[in-house]
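Next comes one such specimen:
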Amino acid sequence: MLHLAVFASGRGSNLRAIDQAILDGQLDARIVAVISNRAASGALDFAREHGIPALSLSEIAAEAEDSWLQEQLAKCGCDFISLAGYMKLLPAGVVSAYRHRITNIHPALLPSFGGKGMFGRHVHEAVIASGAKVSGATVHLVDEEYDRGPIVMQRCVPIADDDTAERLATRVLEIEHRIYPESLQLFADGRVTVRDNKTSIRS
């Protein structure tokens, strides 16, 4: 079983999808904390409503974030971190302490349309402007840079000629909600191996 700390900055739709997968018996995990860089986030509201420890970084000094996070993660018994719409780079110490045990969901097919500033609507606008015929979602392991870690799972959605960023975002989000719990279950089953900065999945 994974003991998950879920990091989220916004409304927490992927957090809710993860929680629902646990309730449905599709994901062998327990959410031990929800952490946000914003004091007023839907993710923290959801955590409080469901009796999950809700922690905010909003009043923690930047130079203290790394040690504070590691202390809180250890205190709640976290052994795996899930970034679910978290709009901040994790401190290097946290990444090192949880190496190959941190995943992120990105609303495009990495390595395209990733990196600093590529989040939310910005991603979908860039995808459409490029003339691409498909987009999708990517679950990847997290390292010290935005959207660069080894890919765990991807799924595609077609792009219509008259698509808008809003319509594309809706379809991609549906994919995110499906593949994120699926990907986490691969880790719960011990099926993911990382070698030479690439992942392999055992059947």
